[in-house]
Q: What sequence folds into this?
């Protein structure tokens, strides 16, 4: 007989918050005759369920103007015809052409595309994944699962993507490789590039080769193979591996530089659904907008309809509230937290004070002797305090340790370059107040350390206390065992959700700070080694961790729906850190639910959740209608005609979390499905927020079969 287990619904209490208005369009108005890329939604051809691509293109062409050679825009306007993720197309059009198109039968809507932006040797062990035992083995390391990654491409020759010891892809795979045939293999089974919008002025195709690094990093984090003797500039030495090392990778390059055109993203999504991926990992995002205007949400809904799990980065606009992106409830929205490893660099002052910070560049020849210390902002200029480009030309920093402030819209590495160019010997980078204790280990161009806000204040106080301040940096290498880990990073975007405040977002947090993974380029200038890795931070890094976890769960439980996998991840999450106390944020104070969501991912517990909150794609329709969307707007998301005859409040969606506004008694219902042992018993355990009374009925559940459902309220 199974032992009693616990079930719960995650409850967030919103005592008071205001809803901010978000403009649907942030783009400037296009003048007469100017071309811009539009996303156009049209009705499906009547009586045609499965239209072939050529027929679909012809149908979409019928909405577009005919251009003649020699005109101001003689290139044919159609960019992409979408078959799977929306009913529509993208095209280069003028405002006048869009107005004319509105008169045609079947037209629904058109708007200018939005531009989305790009938002490990130890993290698998930190998540409890061990090669010799446990969930990794039970899930066959993700064998047989295809993970699709929409990003900046991939560096195919990196050893993380070797096909050695990998089985062939599943028979359902229909994708293709746009590299040379020898560059794809049983690990990297597909690679495609979509750049018609990014490169609208040219007809020349671009390969999926990653010239940025972001895509290679995220792909290897999700499903990179085992690579021994990995390190970054000699630090964090060990075996690099992704979360699902036996899963296959399918790469869709949709970003070319920091910007990712919406029409290219839709084309990548459309291809991934057609190709047969099982999991989609999307480390891209934009500001919150209604779901019918958010084509990652629209395209992801179509993917979920096909049984594809979608994991998205929650955004890097924290620690401020209502900054979360990718909020749709059919998407797993991922926040970022630390692991228990740091690459330590300690600032030592002339009075003996020491402040631990981080840097992945740890020069062995940097002398421990004290050097003159100067604050870059001592001249009273803010640009100098931020060590902006050219700002230190009039500041005497030669041969000195320079204290720079974080922020000002200047990249951390660029601050170091300015200090080095001005003749500085080393840099101490101090956080702004909003970043608190969140630091990053970067591959700086000079000896440096990144310290907390409180440390920066004490260093400035020391500088002001003496006429001859001095300092040095002590490089201490890799240190493992921070008992406060995981800590929510300052940059991780926070809820409440603007698009759907009744659903708690983010859903989950996972490793996203100082993550080591594959990189296309050597950091030390050496061109001899293929073992190139880099350390990166962002929800872009936490997202592929959860994509890998989803792949493991899909391999272990191939018949679980995307909603069941999400429920297992959320309800099995950890609420405490390694010390056994509440998870904290960048201030080292208890993190609230809009920072952590359900908590920190625990893959092994997610493999055996007992009960799940399952949702079929059709269950989202009354929820969307309940948001106040029109039939047409819901139809854009659902990819079919919809009549909102049934509506439910947000909190009644069968989701693992909900929020409630204080002030009156409210009742929420949920349906749980048994995915544990056939004969099993469950007992409710309630942890009430202060000042709130909660009851759950019934208090006990019993099951005699797998798949049986019961209702709770």
A:
């Amino acid at each position: 007989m199974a032992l009693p287990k616990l079930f719960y619904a995650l409850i967030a209490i919103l005592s008071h918050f205001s809803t901010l208005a978000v403009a649907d369009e942030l783009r400037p108005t296009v003048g007469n005759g100017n071309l811009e890329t539009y996303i156009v939604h049209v009705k499906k051809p009547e009586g045609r369920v499965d239209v072939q691509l050529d027929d679909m293109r012809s149908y979409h062409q019928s909405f577009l103007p005919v251009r003649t050679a020699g005109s101001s825009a003689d290139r044919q306007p159609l960019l992409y015809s979408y078959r799977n993720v929306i009913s529509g197309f993208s095209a280069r059009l003028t405002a006048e052409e869009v107005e004319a198109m509105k008169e045609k039968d079947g037209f629904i809507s058109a708007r200018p595309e939005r531009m989305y932006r790009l938002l490990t040797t130890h993290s698998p062990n930190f998540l409890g994944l061990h090669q010799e035992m446990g969930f990794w083995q039970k899930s066959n390391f993700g064998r047989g699962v295809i993970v699709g990654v929409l990003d900046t491409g991939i560096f195919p020759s990196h050893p993380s993507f070797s096909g050695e010891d990998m089985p062939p892809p599943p028979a359902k795979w229909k994708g293709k490789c746009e590299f040379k045939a020898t560059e794809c293999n049983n690990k990297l089974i597909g690679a495609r590039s979509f750049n018609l919008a990014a490169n609208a002025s040219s007809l020349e195709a671009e390969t999926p080769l990653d010239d940025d690094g972001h895509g290679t990093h995220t792909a290897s984090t999700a499903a990179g193979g085992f690579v021994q003797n990995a390190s970054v500039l000699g630090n964090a030495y060990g075996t690099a591996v992704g979360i699902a090392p036996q899963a296959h990778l399918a790469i869709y390059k949709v970003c070319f530089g920091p910007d990712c055109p919406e029409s290219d993203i839709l084309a990548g999504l459309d291809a991934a659904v057609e190709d047969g991926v099982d999991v989609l990992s999307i480390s891209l995002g934009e500001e919150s907008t209604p779901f019918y205007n958010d084509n990652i949400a629209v395209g992801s809904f179509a993917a979920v309809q096909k049984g594809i799990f979608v994991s998205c980065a929650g955004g890097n606009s924290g620690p401020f509230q209502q900054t979360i992106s990718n909020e749709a409830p059919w998407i797993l929205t991922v926040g970022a937290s630390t692991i228990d490893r740091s690459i330590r660099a300690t600032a030592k002052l002339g009075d003996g004070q020491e402040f631990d910070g981080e840097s992945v560049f740890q020069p062995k020849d940097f002398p421990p002797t004290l050097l003159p210390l100067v604050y870059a902002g001592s001249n009273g200029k803010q640009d100098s305090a931020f060590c902006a480009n050219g700002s230190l030309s009039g500041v005497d920093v030669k041969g000195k340790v320079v204290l720079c402030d974080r922020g000002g819209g200047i990249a951390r590495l660029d601050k170091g370059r300015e200090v080095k160019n001005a003749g500085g010997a080393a840099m101490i980078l101090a956080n702004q107040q909003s970043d608190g204790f969140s630091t990053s280990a970067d591959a700086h161009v000079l000896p440096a350390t990144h310290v907390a806000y409180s440390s920066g204040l004490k260093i400035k106080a020391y500088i002001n206390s003496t006429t001859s301040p001095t300092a040095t940096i002590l490089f201490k290498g890799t240190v493992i065992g921070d008992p406060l880990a995981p800590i929510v990073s300052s940059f991780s975007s926070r809820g409440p959700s603007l698009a759907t405040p009744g659903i708690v977002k983010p859903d989950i947090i996972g490793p996203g700070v100082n993550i080591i993974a594959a990189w296309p380029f050597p950091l030390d200038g050496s061109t001899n080694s293929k073992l190139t890795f880099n350390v990166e931070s962002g929800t872009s890094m936490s997202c592929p961790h959860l994509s890998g976890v989803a792949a493991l769960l899909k391999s272990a439980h191939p018949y679980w729906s995307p909603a069941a996998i999400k429920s297992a991840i959320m309800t099995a999450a950890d609420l405490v850190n390694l010390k056994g106390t509440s998870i904290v944020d960048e201030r080292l104070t208890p993190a609230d639910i809009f920072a952590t969501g359900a908590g920190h991912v625990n893959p092994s517990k997610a493999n055996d959740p007992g009960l799940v909150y399952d949702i079929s794609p059709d269950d989202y329709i009354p929820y969307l209608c309940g948001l106040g969307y029109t039939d047409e707007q819901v139809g854009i998301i659902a990819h079919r005609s919809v009549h909102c005859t049934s509506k439910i409040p947000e909190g009644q969606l069968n989701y693992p979390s909900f929020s409630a506004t204080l002030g009156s008694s409210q009742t929420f219902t949920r349906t749980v499905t048994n995915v544990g042992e056939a004969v099993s018993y469950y007992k409710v355990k309630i942890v009430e927020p202060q000042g709130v009374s909660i009851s759950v009925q019934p208090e006990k559940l019993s099951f005699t079969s797998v798949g049986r459902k019961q209702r709770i309220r």
In short: The chain is about 20% helix and 25% strand. Confidence is low (pLDDT under 50) at residues 1-32. The first helix runs from residue 53 to 61. Residues 341 and 356 are 13 Å apart (CA to CA).
